[in-house]
Amino acid sequence: MLFSPNSSCFGCVFLPLLHLLLLSATAVFCGSIVRYLPGFDGELPFKLETGYVRVDEIEIFYYFIESERNPRIDPIMLWYSGGPGCSALNGLIYEIGPLAFNITAYYGGLPSLEYYPYSWTKTASILFADVPVGTGFSYTTDPSSWTTSDTKTAQQTYIFLKKWLIDHPQFLQVQLFVGADSYSGITAPMVVQHILDANNDGDTPRLNLKGYIVGCPRTDAGINENSKINFLHRMGFISDELYESAKESCGGQYYEADFYTPQCTEDVKLIEKGTHDLDKNNILDPKCTWASPQIDGDTKRRSLEENPGNFLLSPPIIPDFWCHNFNYSLSYIWANDVRVQKALHVREGTIEDWKRCNKSIPYTMDQQSVIGFHHNLSRYGLQVLVYNGDHDLTIPNVGTQEWIELLNITVVNDWRPWLVDGEIAGYTIKYSEHGYRLTYATIKGAGHSPQEYKRRECFEMFHRFISYYPI
């Protein structure tokens, strides 16, 4: 068995022939333990492993953090971000991990990191993956492998997960969840379906899947786009007169409205003009202007996060004017630092310029709707959590509630507030059908993605869900 002296393999074993056939020519996949990170004072107070898993011709980079409670019995969750093309570091630093940048004490140079106590790793082990290829530190040396799609990403993500678990056999017995947010709401139920299909076909090892989690999830292109008009009207950004005119002229279908009547087209243009300057990720935030010296010519936004160019190299600390993406700039500085990449065991020369969200990936969106996947998954006894920020215009909560209703599953706990520290943190409703349980929750005052705005509340939501407590 060969591995570098600074590697630590939780479960490096020689695999049986069946696994050798599944995992290609390499018999062992080992990650490296990271005990110190540039910008963090002292040794990390949690167990972090980084490494690569080879899938086809792709090297998928991952960060793995063991549960800070009891990793032998706590669940494990695969987590990957949206975009497509947003790095898992985004989830680790800004959303659900135990680290955060110290934005208030930043005066230039390498940003400092702080331990964040309300991390989802308090109650679960989390495997953060840079998928699809071209995301974060994942790469390929085969030019033909850069091109990918929803279908291909889902399949490769499943293979990545299975290979990683085979290499870490102590986590095969604990409960497994698949988690994703934003655009990855398209591929996450597909990954879950791959797991179930393999289990049903008798593939070994059997993955101990218990459920999945999708936050502010892209699910159906038509519902998502149409719901934006309904959301804007509910929030008071569209007058009743204009809304009723658009609803009548477009027949409630505003998606690709250019194909409908001239009045519909005119109404939609008026709506777009009146709401153009809203921050789509959080309608309460200021919409920050371009401030990066490295802006390419294509400003069309394809990511469901902010445009990767929308960040400031020197974020000012001005209490009266705060842009949410000021904080994003620190990730570009930190992750592109040579010392950081060496500490994370990133392979030298594989990534020229790390991006929080890489919009240059040649990606085909070949799944316009995955409601059918969710409907099929409702036949299994899975635990499911779906959530939205209620100030998110990118993936409005009204659209998520619409596709959930299309699943035609029974309400068992009707719409009610849920609380954190005695205060309303959002609203929730629970469905159940033949052992399948779906909990939907809103996070009050949160945008896209909710964890970035209400990190403590989202931790409480996750902790209750993963512990089978009512939210």
UniProtKB/TrEMBL annotation:
Tree of life domain: Eukaryota
Lineage start: Eukaryota, Viridiplantae, Streptophyta, Embryophyta, Tracheophyta
Family (UniProt): Belongs to the peptidase S10 family.
Keywords, in A-Z order: Signal
A GO biological process held by the record: proteolysis
Source organism of this protein record: Vitis rotundifolia
Protein name: Serine carboxypeptidase-like 18
Signal sequence, renumbered to the chain: 1-27
GO MF entries: acyltransferase activity, transferring groups other than amino-acyl groups; serine-type carboxypeptidase activity
